[in-house]
Amino acid sequence: MSLREVLTPFSVWKRVLDAPVSIADPFSREASEHYRGFHKNDMETCIGCGTCEAICQNGAIDMVPVEGQNTEKGDSGLRPMIDYGRCCWCALCVDICMTGSLTMSNEYTWVDSDPDAFRFIPGLNEPWKDKQAGYKRENGRVLSGTTRSPMGELHANERIDNFNEICVGYTREEAILEADRCVECGLCVATCPAHMSIPDYIAAVRDQDYDRGLQLLYETNPFSEVCGRICTHKCETSCAAVHEGDAIAIRWLKRHIVDNVPLERRVELIGAPKPATGKSVAIIGAGPGGLTAAYDLAREGVKVTVYEALPKPGGMMRYGIPEYRLPYDALDRDIAVIEAMGVTIKCATVVGVDVQMEDLRQSHDAVILAIGLQMGRGTRIPGSEGAGVERAVDLLRRITAGDPTVPVPETAVVIGGGNVAFDIARSMARLQKIKYGRVGLTLTALEDRAHFLADKEELVEGDEEGVLILDSRGPQEVMRDPSGQVTGLRTWAVTSIFDAEGRFAPAYDESDEQIHQGALVIEAIGQMADTSLLGDALTEKLEWNRGRIKIDSEMRTSEPWLFAAGDAVKGPDVINAVADGHRAARTVMEAIAQGEVVQ
Amino acid sequence: MMRDLHALLTPRHALGPLEIRRENLAFVTLPASNLRGFLTELRDTQGFSHLVLLTAVDWLEEGQFQLTYMMNNRARDLTLGVRVMLDRTTAQMDSIHDLWPTAATYQRELKEMFGITFPGSPRLDEEFILEGWTDLPPYRRDFDSLAYSQQTYAERPGRVTHDPREYMKSKLYPGG
């Protein structure tokens, strides 16, 4: 060992008076601005979708109930709890968070003698809760796609002089791209009245397994081809993707699955019903509620006969919804599958005329009433009685039936702002275009444009097709010339629709009066059920609730042999009718099993 | 400048199209067998004397690994990313440790994290940061991080999680 080697270490003493490089108090040292430190979660923005848990590569996150967070539409009420024994601060959970609620602070020191303290729910009362610094997604970057695959549509010019279907459906490529955006959180399932297995069938699209997709659809909905086109798709309003982009096109993906499985294959995939039980059920009304119940009961081996007053089955799906939204052959295929399960549909058979309620009661183990809302309501404004004023549902029914006497004047006015109003307005616009080469249709609604009851696309497409849509107009009088011919509709501007107690009581600005020209006025302000088929005795015997037959939550009426479903008792759309149909069928099966149904 | 260089070197090294990101940053892809010759010429005649980094991307679906050699010309402030694509099953590339000694460290890391081998590179098979690793190289995309972490690390007792969909059902429509 040389002398130099002995002495060299002492040379560091020359630094003894220098300022120290190390930090005297490392515990209060601020980390950098974007440091990935302890988590924060904005409890109000978080929707409990669990995508953070799903992406965590360390299995560090659990979704747990938190006091004060309620389970409601679009929010599971669960919140992430993070186990810091496993977290590696990779921040994938922050990157994938569907609402941006989950972020990180730049805090990185935390001392505790209780190891369980490090399993914690960010967003409650951690000291760094309100710290601004820390890791966030840069520039609002979103990992899952935010833009919906656009649906191909016929241009307004191509569709206004015919009843061809407007939407062309997704290609496989478009469907896979759209399905890829779904994070499979399942928040939508609760919102769907039929609780369809939405994330599972979207996964089937992604996997290109249409057989599996179709089987999943039929577990909860025998009208998937119909609903894939015209469902009110409230599920999409609960989609986690809606917070930072477009909701997943759940409805179009459903349609895409059915479009890719031919009819014969559908029947094959569903399989044969259970062996016959010897039981039989009569169903009145071949709409979505009645036929769904029929499907379920037939699957259980019950002999089902459906009585339908109109010449063809489908109810409002056929006689209400226009062909350009739901082609008849699409509806026919859904019904064909139901018939393939052994359901007998007797069309053009009016209960109360061709067959009596009492006979149905005698010859079946149970009867389900699913008669829908077939009668249009009138406005009862002056001039609304007599020729030249029609109800939307009647006209739509006649248009479907091909009635040559449907009045098609050059100008017409529709009263109403719901989907039925748009259905008749846009159907009539097509008939006008075919007959006169131009559209002369005015639609007046009480609501302002932002609050129309119709789906948004109805407004967009109605505008495109040349329907004059006037919002906040209240009908006052149907104008007639001295000979009694309708000449138009007089309206006032609406200042409010509901009174202080929230009751329907439109108020008007009488100084803002307009007359909308039209030789035909069509009322589309709501429907009611025609219950005359019940007969006086049964009508008297049944319990009623504000003009509707009273049912319990399991679709039982006050008569033990009679059940009711669909728009006539609940409403308001196809998917709710489907859900009701399932419930009615289940209740009937339980009642039959328990021998409750008294003859 | 980058364009001139690209035009000059393309015929000899079968370079792909030049992807310009910034005025002084561009990328180019070439056949793996041409890499050593191209890097040598870049270093010895074009002033790209600095190997900034060497990294990889696993293109699992395409069955390929991409190697990116970031080369820098300090005097002219130019950076060229040189890419080669390797067959994922063979996962082998010529070593460049003799051109830049630091490359040996990158190559050792890539061997450990991606399982890409560079025959002849010093200390290639020694552990780099992983100790006693027996699983798939962890940066390969078919390595299941979650399964590994579940098998390897203990779960703290008392943990319970809830599936949002099932939980909502139990709260909102328990009867179905």
From TrEMBL, chain A:
A Gene Ontology molecular function term for this protein is:
metal ion binding
Keyword annotations: Iron, Iron-sulfur, Metal-binding
- What InterPro entries does its record include? 4Fe4S_Fe-S-bd, 4Fe4S_Fe_S_CS, DPD_II, FAD/NAD-bd_sf, FAD/NAD-binding_dom, Helical_ferredxn
* Domain 4Fe-4S ferredoxin-type residues, every copy: 37-66, 78-107, 173-201
Pfam families documented for this protein: Fer4_20 (PF14691), Fer4_7 (PF12838), Pyr_redox_2 (PF07992)
| Name of the featured protein | Membrane bound protein complex subunit mbxN
Species: Rhodobacter aestuarii
From TrEMBL, chain B:
Gene Ontology MF, one: NADH dehydrogenase (ubiquinone) activity
Q: Any stretches that span the bilayer, and where are they?
A: none
- Record SUPFAM superfamilies: Nqo5-like (SSF143243)
Query: Which ranges carry the NADH:ubiquinone oxidoreductase 30kDa subunit domain?
Result: 29-145
Q: Which PANTHER family match?
A: NADH DEHYDROGENASE [UBIQUINONE] IRON-SULFUR PROTEIN 3, MITOCHONDRIAL (PTHR10884:SF14), NADH DEHYDROGENASE UBIQUINONE IRON-SULFUR PROTEIN 3 (PTHR10884)
Q: State the family named in the UniProt similarity comment for this chain.
A: Belongs to the complex I 30 kDa subunit family.
Q: What is this protein called?
A: NADH-quinone oxidoreductase subunit C
